[in-house]
Amino acid sequence: MKLLKRYRFFLIAALFLSILVLRNRELGIEAISITGYSLKEMILVIPPIFVLLGLLDVWVPKETMIKYMGEDSGLKGILLAFLIGSAAAGPLYGAFPVAAVFMKKGVKFSNVLIFIGAWSTTKIPMLLFEISALGAKFALTRLLVDIPGIILIAYVLCTFADQAEIERIYKKAESM
Q1: What is the pLDDT of residue 135?
Q2: Which InterPro entries match (predicted)?
């Protein structure tokens, strides 16, 4: 029973996919193909991220992370969160395990949020693509709007978030 509960979302999705194949074979096969492609992409992305996380966890002492990105890090922590998030490669779902390790290492919550925001919107390869496809003026304008926007959102979330909830999130990250 515990196994069914654990995999209920997968089983429900598989059921709907089976029904789709029975009702509309062509569309169902296309959905299975897209699912397979996404699964393959995740299998290629997730293992390297976890290897890098393991190295980060072992090689970088908690004290170092606290010094550079912790509660008293100030502008240095913000810049480092932006730099790491912008230089990162991979889809957004790769940022969350990294964020969990950051929390485990004592990184300030706003810096974790800034890192996630930078990963999602200020990636260097994305900026280079935008410059080539949409022009430098557009790309740099978007970047100049995004940077203060990410910082603002991070601090607004920290201001309005319940401190007990933030502590619960950190405890959950520590237990992983």
Answers
A1: 94
A2: DUF318 (IPR005524)
DSSP per residue, 37-57: HHHHHHHHHHHHHHHHHHHHH
Q: Tell me, yes or no, whether 159 lies in a domain.
A: yes
Asked whether the beta carbons of 28 and 21 are under 8 A apart, the reply is yes
Residue 124: closest CA among 99, 88, 92: 88
CA 25 to chain centre: 35
pLDDT of 79: 96
Query: Are residues 98 and 31 both part of a single domain?
Result: no
- Phi-psi region at 70: left, alpha or beta (left = phi > 0; alpha = psi -120 to 50): beta
Beta strands in the chain (DSSP E): none
pLDDT at position 91: 86
Specify the 3-state DSSP secondary structure of 123: coil
Q: How far is CA 168 from CA 105, 172, 175, in A?
A: 15, 6, 11
Along the chain (176 residues), what's the average pLDDT of each consecutive run of 10 residues?
86 92 93 92 85 84 91 94 89 90 94 96 90 94 95 95 92 86
Nearest C-alpha neighbor of 103 from the set 71, 80, 75, 72 = 71
123: containing domain: 60-175
